[in-house]
Write a structure and sequence with these properties.
The chain is mainly beta. The chain contains two helices and 14 strands, in the order ββββαβββββαβββββ. It has helices at residues 58-64, 139-144, and strands at 2-3, 7-8, 32-33, 40-45, 67-76, 80-81, 115-116, 127-129, 132-134, 146-147, 163-164, 168-180, 186-194, 229-237. The protein starts with a strand and ends with a strand. The relative contact order is 0.19.
């Protein structure tokens, strides 16, 4: 397991030439979590080969022996959630007004987040509100606690987000069966599962509100995981 915290003034790739600073005279204004800031990340890979019937003697040995199970479990905490107005990043905004340091939404964007006046109800998990999956149990209440950055009051823009998104997890599984046919001839059958539990992992939402649709604030619309897939294989050795 890895515990980390990635802080900076907004690392972006060189191709992001239209991304500007919140305050060009004070780059520390946008100091905060980087876009890849995941506090906890864990990956577990296991291989289990039952110790029974290794020689595969008799009918029971051929059925119960030669199995290999190899699961892979991955999990991690949520990444920062960016929340901007229509005049900052290209995402639709919560207010439609231009906060300090914002561009004109056509030629320049910047990481000027909206600021939560309260963190109540902002814990990221999957809820169903009005028949739609959403990251917040009461999206209207969270929406109403967001405001633009205020010059002279806010000394940090929150980096890539004051809030964090959904944690993730996934399990893959490989199963192999060694089959001894003769002393010089044997076979190996395998099946590999991707997302063996068919877990639906949503992508983090774009925190937009557009004033008239606060109930849709934080709505989950995109599946990030692929449905369960299986790959079969057989190998002959002689």
């Amino acid at each position: 397991m890895t515990w980390s915290k990635a802080l900076g003034t907004g690392a972006v790739i060189q191709a992001t030439s239209e991304s500007g600073a919140v305050d060009s005279f004070n780059l520390r204004q946008q100091y905060g979590p980087q876009i890849f800031d995941r506090r906890l990340v864990d990956s577990v890979f296991m291989v289990y080969q039952p110790p029974f019937y290794k020689g595969q003697q008799g009918l029971a040995g051929h059925i119960l022996g030669g199995w290999i199970f190899s699961p892979i479990f991955t999990t991690g905490s949520g990444a920062p959630l960016f929340c901007g107005t229509s005049s900052s990043f290209p995402e639709a905004g919560y207010s439609g007004s231009q906060e300090f340091g914002a561009g004109d939404s056509n030629t320049e964007f910047n990481p000027a987040n909206c600021v939560p006046t309260s963190y109540a109800g902002t814990g990221a998990s999957v809820h169903t509100v009005g028949g739609q999956p959403t990251i917040y149990g009461n999206p209207t209440a969270v929406f109403n606690n967001m405001r633009p950055l205020i010059l002279g009051i806010d000394h940090r823009s929150g980096g890539f987000g004051f809030l964090h998104g959904l944690p993730y997890w996934n399990v893959n599984l490989g199963i192999k069966k060694e089959m001894k046919i003769t002393e010089r001839f044997n076979a190996q059958a395998s099946i590999n599962f991707e997302n063996v539990l068919n877990h639906n992992q949503f992508l983090d939402p774009v925190l937009d509100g557009c004033n008239s649709c606060s109930a849709g604030f934080g709505q989950l619309t995109t599946q990030g995981s692929t449905p369960r897939t299986m790959e079969f294989g057989i190998r002959l050795n002689f």
